[in-house]
Amino acid sequence: MSRSWFHSRGPSNATIFGKWTLPAIAILVAGTYIVAGILLLQSARAVDARRIERTQAQLRAAIQIDEERLARALMAYANSGSSYRNLHLTLDLEWAEKGDNFGRKLYALLGIDHAIVVSHENMVIYHVREGQPDTTSTFPEGLAPVIASAGAEVVRGLFWVDRRPAFVGIAPITPGNDTTVTPVPGPPSRLVFVRFLSGGVLQAIGSLATLNDVHLVQAGTPEGPTVSIPTRNGSPFALAWTDMMPGKSVADVVAPWFAACGGALVLLTWLALGRAAKNAKTIERAAASMAVHREALLASEARFRDVADAASDWIWEADARLAVTYLS
Hints:
Helices cover about 55% and strands about 20% of the residues. By secondary structure, the protein is of the alpha+beta class. It has two domains: about 45-245, PAS domain (Beta-Lactamase), CATH 3.30.450; about 255-328. Strands 3-2-1-6-5-4 form a six-stranded antiparallel beta sheet. A three-stranded antiparallel beta sheet has the order 7-9-8. Strands 10-11 form a two-stranded antiparallel sheet. Strand 8 (about 225-230) and strand 9 (about 235-240) form a beta hairpin.
C-alpha cells in the first residue's frame, strides 16, 4: 500500500520540490541575511544614539563646571576689600591698571572678555575689554537690560551679548570678610564679567568633556551630533563636536564584508538549489519513464499469460526457494 502511494506520488513530489521548495529556501536564506543586516544597522544606530546622549550630558556638565569657575572668580573679586576700596569707594587706576589687579590678568588667566564696574545708576565706571582699558561708556549689545534687571542681586548664566552666547556674571561689590574696610551707606557698585564662548573657551569645555573640536553651530544643517544649550535672554544655541561614532565605525567595517559574504552565500545557495532543481527534474523524468515501462511490462506480462494459458495445460511460476507463486 505504501509502495503504491510512493510510486504514484513520486513525480508530483519532485515537481513541488523543484517549483516551490527550492525557491522558498533561497528566499529564506536571502531574507535571513537581510534581516541580520537590518538588525546590525539598528544596533549600530542604537549604540551611537546612547553615546550621543551621554556626550550631551557630559557637555552640559562641562559647561556648568566652567560657569561655576567663572562665578567663583567673580565672587572672589566682588567680595574683596581691595576691590571695594579701589573700585567702589574711589576709582584707583593705579591699582587697577598698573598693579594689574583689574586688567590683563583677567583676560590672560580667566579669558574674561569684558570686565565692567557699573554704578548703581547703571552707568559704566570702569571697563576693561580683552585685558585693555576701554574708554567707551556703552555696554556691549544686549548687556544693558541684563544689568538693569539684576539690580543688586547676584546673576549668572548664559546670555546673548553682541549677538554671541556668553557667560555673564553680575555681583555687587562688597568688602567681604575684610575688616579693614568700613562699608559706606548707599547702593553698591556692581562688577560684571562677560566671557564669550569662543574657540579657547570651547576648547577648555571640550577638554572637560573629553571631546574634540567643540564649536558653535552656524547657520545651516550641522554635520554630526549637536546639543542645544538654553540662554536666559533669548533663543538657545547649539554646539557640535567631532566624534567617532562606535556603532557607525563598526558598521562601516563590518557591512562591506557582511554584504560580500551574504552575496556569496546567496549565490552559492542559489547555484546549489539550481543543481538540486535539475536533479529533481531528472528524478521526475526518470520516475515518469519508469512508470511507463512498468505499465508496458505489466501489459506484456498479461499478454504472455494469455498466450501461455491458451497453449499449455499447466503453467506455474516459482520463486528462489522453488515455492509455487503462480499456477494455471
